[in-house]
């Protein structure tokens, strides 16, 4: 039985439920691993400038290790990034605490909720999703919403009560 393991060596973050929701939504079967790293606003700005040519701080950056995997079932036999323990390493997600705090306040939800959304967003990038073209953006947002609904079912209940 496979799973998605999200490693963060810098601090303890609760992401087991999030990992299960992403794994289930994407229909994966293999043992898959991603890492989360936290960077300062200056640090993520430097990464954004160096990697994307955009000289501003951002909330999340993703660094996938595999190409062409969107919508595919990952098989360890086909992936060259297998690590000890049989996990397929799909990449790294870099988050910025300052942006998480700022955006959580703007939106009006917890920092944990904002961080979890950004991890989901980053994981989808690692799995090959993007939001450059409008069609792709709609597809990625639909996946994000499906995953967030699994993580925060009470938000769906609240939306239902408002309608």
Verbal overview:
The mean pLDDT is 92. This protein has a single domain (3-155), classed as 3-Layer(aba) Sandwich (Collagenase (Catalytic Domain)). It is built from six helices and four strands, in the order E-H-E-H-E-E-H-H-H-H. The chain has a four-stranded mixed beta sheet. It has 163 residues and is an alpha/beta fold. The longest helix has 18 residues, at 134-151.
Keywords:
globular; single chain; 4 strands; four-stranded mixed beta sheet; 163 residues; alpha/beta
Please give the structural blueprint.
Layout: E1 3-7, H1 16-26, E2 31-39, H2 41-52, E3 60-64, E4 88-96, H3 97-107, H4 111-126, H5 134-151, H6 153-162
Parallel strand pairs: 1-2, 2-4
Antiparallel strand pairs: 3-4
Helix pairs in contact: 1-5, 3-4, 4-5, 5-6
């Amino acid at each position: 039985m496979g799973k998605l393991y999200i490693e963060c060596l810098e601090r303890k973050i609760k992401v087991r439920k999030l990992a299960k929701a992403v794994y289930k939504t994407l229909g994966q079967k293999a043992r898959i691993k991603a890492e989360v790293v936290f960077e300062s606003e200056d640090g993520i700005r430097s990464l954004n400038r160096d990697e994307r040519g955009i000289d501003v701080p951002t909330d999340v950056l993703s660094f996938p290790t595999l190409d062409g995997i969107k919508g595919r079932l990952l098989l360890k036999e086909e992936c060259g990034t297998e690590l000890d323990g049989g996990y397929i390493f799909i990449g790294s997600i870099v988050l910025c605490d300052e942006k998480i705090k700022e955006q959580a306040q703007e939106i009006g939800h917890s920092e944990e909720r904002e961080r979890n959304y950004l991890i989901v967003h980053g994981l989808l990038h690692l799995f090959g999703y993007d939001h450059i073209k409008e069609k792709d953006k709609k597809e990625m947002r639909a996946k994000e919403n499906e995953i967030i609904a699994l993580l925060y079912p009470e938000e769906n209940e609240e939306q239902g009560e408002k309608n």
